[in-house]
Structures are given as C-alpha cells and as structure tokens.
Amino acid sequence: MYGCETWSLTLRKERRLRVFQNRMWGRIFGPERDEVTGDCRKIHNEELNDLYSSPNIVRVIKSRRMKWAGHVARMGRGGVYRVLVGKAEGKRQFGRPRHRYEDNIKMDLHEVGCGDRDWVDLAQDSHRWRALGNAVMNLRVP
Fold this sequence. Notes:
Blueprint (H helix, E strand, L loop, with lengths): L10 H19 L2 E2 L6 E2 L3 H7 L5 H19 L4 H6 L15 H12 L6 H5 L2 H12 L5
Antiparallel strand pairs: 1-2
Helix pairs in contact: 3-7
C-alpha cells in the first residue's frame, strides 16, 4: 500500500486488488472444517468479510487518495500541484486516453454525490474535504 495515494486505478486494477485481498484472507483464515462430517471447505468471500473487520482495500486507497489530493490542492499553484493537474505537451498515443489521477478524484467525488463541483475548490475547506474522504471510505464497493 506504500504510495497508493498516487495510484491511478482502473476498474480492472480495483478488481485485481479485491481478488488479491480475498485470496490473502483465505490463506490467513484457512479452510473451515465441518464438525459433524469432518470435511474441509474453503471460506466464501462473504464469510471472510465477516471474520475480518478491516475495510476493503479499494476503499482505503480511495480515502488515502482523497486526503493526499486535498493536501496538494491546498499547497498552492506550484510544484506538486502542477504535476498533478498539468497536461503533457506533444501528441498523445493512438487509442483511448489513459486514466488520469484527476479523473479518479472526480469519479470518487461523483460516487459521494459532489461530482458537479470543482474538486480543487472543494479541497480548500479541509473539514469538508475530510468529511468527503470519510464518505468515500464508507462506500460499498462490490
């Protein structure tokens, strides 16, 4: 999770992270033995979620991303902010444009219900931005 604040996640990467997390939980908790028959079976994902009370890895990444983006937006218009929202010069590659970091922030805000507002202006109020980050943490991720 080191540096996950800067990751630009696609839906495919999110799904792969959830699969990885469920696989690790399955290895940690191991198979479940039925006391009556003595047979072993794998624990289903829903049962793993009940056993392990930690939040989903995707929600943690989104929350950390929101916190870091708010911090960078409040820094000012120089340095890291220009790298975060700047546009590269020159021609882009053929095909679909790559997913940008700013697009992820806008999608996270849209999930919370603030997608129609400018995220940089929202981030200037640190208390409201923190509340939005907590709301992203509490979202249900399939």
